[in-house]
Amino acid sequence: MTQESSSNMASDLTLSNVTVGYDGQQIVASTSFHLAAGEIGCLLGPSGCGKSTLLRAIAGFEPLMSGQIEVAGKVISTAQTNLPPERRQIGMVFQDIALFPHLTVGENIAFGLTSWTKPKAQARVDELLALVGLAGFQSRYPHSLSGGQQQRVALARAMAPKPKLLLMDEPFSGLDAKLREELVPDIRSILLHEEMSAILVTHDQMEAFAMADQVSVMSDGEIHQTGTCYEIYHKPATRFVASFIGHGDFLPATVCGPNCVHSDLGRIQGNLNHGFADQAVVDLLVRPDDILHDDDSEFVGTIVSKWFRGSHFLYRVSLASGKVVYCFASSHHNHSIGQSIGLTIHLDHLVMFSR
Amino acid sequence: MNWFKKFNFSLLSGAAIFIAALLSLPILVVLVNVVIGDGQVWQHLYQTVLVEYVHNSLLLMVGVGIGVLCIGVPTAWLTSMCNFPGRQFLAWALLLPMAFPAYIIAYTYTGILDFAGPVQTFIREMTGWRYGDYWFFEIRSLGGAMTMLILVLYPYVYLMSRAAFLEQSANTLEVARTLGYSNPQAFRKLALPLARPAIVTGLTLALMETLADYGTVQYFSVNTFTTGILRTFYGFGDVAAASQLAGVLLLFVTVLIVLERYSRHRIRYHNSGIKKASSRRIPLGRWQGVCALLFCLLPILLGFLIPALVLAYWAMFKAEFIADRFLQLAWNSFYLAALAALILVSLALVLSYAGRLYKHKAVHASVGLSGLGYALPGTIIAIGTLVPLAWLDHQIIDLVKHYTGQKIGLLLSGTLFALLFAYTVRFMAVSLGAVQNGLGKIKPSMDMSARTLGMNSWKVLTRIHLPLLKGSILTAILIVFVDVLKELPATLVLRPFNFNTLAVRAFELASDERLVDAAPASLMIVLVSLVPVILLSRSISSDVASSK
Predict the structure, then answer these.
(1) Fold that domain B12-265+281-546 belongs to in CATH
(2) Looking at this predicted complex, what is its ipTM?
(3) Are the C-beta atoms of residues B304 and B98 closer than 8 Å to each other?
(4) What predicted TM-score, i.e. pTM, was given to this entire model?
(5) Mean pLDDT, to the nearest integer, of B174-184?
(6) Are the C-beta atoms of residues B290 and B91 closer than 8 Å to each other?
(7) Are A99 and B273 an interchain contact pair (Cβ–Cβ within 8 Å)?
């Protein structure tokens, strides 16, 4: 059972070459990352990429095939030893919420506080109810709560014993979009208030951006990149990260200098050495906000489709070579499909992948 | 005309109300007899037999209740939540004892365990002891009846609690683990309380069967309500006293029904989680696994394998088998069961469609009322059927005599009509349940989309409903068929003179101490009863596959 004394200290988490799988089949292959104490990390990836399996391994529900997991400097999982979940002091919020339907809200939250004295446990329950904005709901039953309220109770229940680390497995996927938008920043501020290290698993990048200090992008059982939201968007390490995060197109280009390439939209000068050999053929990552509508430009493209986004238009434009790219334009620039418009490219750091 | 419209009266809803009225006749008759019966009968019953009946019936219920819980819940937990060799086989094999009617397993074990049986004979040969030299379990006793009923009734608890364990949000137990609970603690604090309503439902079903049992207790000479009712009715021809006893039995049953309804209500309220079977089963160590395997194997062995093998052996090598007579019995049983099944399913269709099409309170109540007979022991239904039919018969006879001067025989009460009527009362709930289950899966939006696609209501019925309902109708026919085949007390009371079925003949032979000769008929019943059990098992193993 959880000890009271170990409370209030956020812990860091280190995964070293963790491989998870069963029946001889690898689901997560040799993964490593570090999460600093008090930070919120995110495992982001498409469904079936192994992110939930990795989370369950951290919680102690999946044994490791190799590698090790450390929390606060203490090894909790290796291929040989597996500390049972109940002795890890790691809290978890599940996708299906999984409140205990036969217990009240208060009893649910107090469920993990068995070793606390009664008044202390009650104080903790009150504190958490207030924190998640459900003061007065103590003696209600879960079935009488809305989805968002149930999710808040689940969070409070997981945080109640002051775990060293909080894991959240797609906690918002059962909620509608509007509720999610409200809940995500709330939960982030609750976690910061409790100074709790946490890991969120999601397939929704907007959720990851709104919640996490550090994002690990996963695909096919591997972490492709771990970094800040800014880094994974603007400096994607692999082609998968580049295409999974945000909108983006790969524009064929030829290297024409240590920090310069030549493409359908002309010569582009970067501000950093890109490290590719001269005349190498590469794919250049361009985001919709990198290509701008400019009537004076010598480069033109034909509009294939368009979306009105309020503050701007998003155009899909076909270039002379037949390559199709996204382009942002001010919402005053209303052009019709089939029209030709001038384009310029604004890129400072070049993100390129060899063909 | 206004009230007429308001009632939304139609042929279908009228038929439903009429069926319900007919089917609740037997219970009304018993209740009326309880009320109008005079105090003297009551006084007499109280002084003579009532205390013994209450005592024995209560003791039987307590014993069977504890027994089915001790077998049903742990086996359900092991096969649904733990992983050990043989689990998948055990998950469905644990249902097999359901194929045995309690009275058949009772006299099979009597044949095995009594003084002249193979077990005691073997002991005497090995030790040289004689009669009186040693103690041996007397199977013809209250304890024996308990044991027999436990062996065939635990599957009710097993089925219900297994479903409950599987339906618990798989993450529930994992949440408990992350909050510091070990597996056994999580089971005690969460899984068990969550499954409690379902377990109670299974328990009440088993106890209703215990109360309804006639064959076992009669054969073992344990005096309970069911044996007492028939003895009073037959032996003394005392309808009032028999009805009074039936009334007390009804009280017991009512308590159980209320308990069952209440816990069903709680099941609905307890299942708010989204089902997601992502968690993996708890792996058991080698010795734990072996123990689990043996524990689950034991009820299958005692409740099915041993008695089935013994019956088969008797039937093949020992029994006096007269083909003609046996074929006659089988034919009687089968056509009676088939006829009952057809009647029951047709009426269930009428009731279900009335309930679906007319949301009127009277129709709704009629559908509910029609299923009530399932909770009633066959003995009560038999008396409730015989009394009004005999009265009606005499009226008809008098009437015919008055107008034509001719004397005719019994038209209703001494014929198959009475038997079929009693079966309809007793098994309407089974048939109704299966049909309604199928009909419930046909969403009203399906009807509507078919109509918008240009089908008239007849075409909706034949092209949408019939194909979708086919499976449910066949299930209903099958279950009713088997239930009728196994039914003993009502058949015993209501059958026409010299008309025998497999169940009745097996029971008679066994009562005449011709256990071995009863084997062919018994084996036949068990084999046919296996069919729905195997169907049920198959749906269980598909659960197993989907929750891996």
Answers:
(1) MetI-like fold (1.10.3720)
(2) 0.70
(3) no
(4) 0.78
(5) 86
(6) no
(7) yes
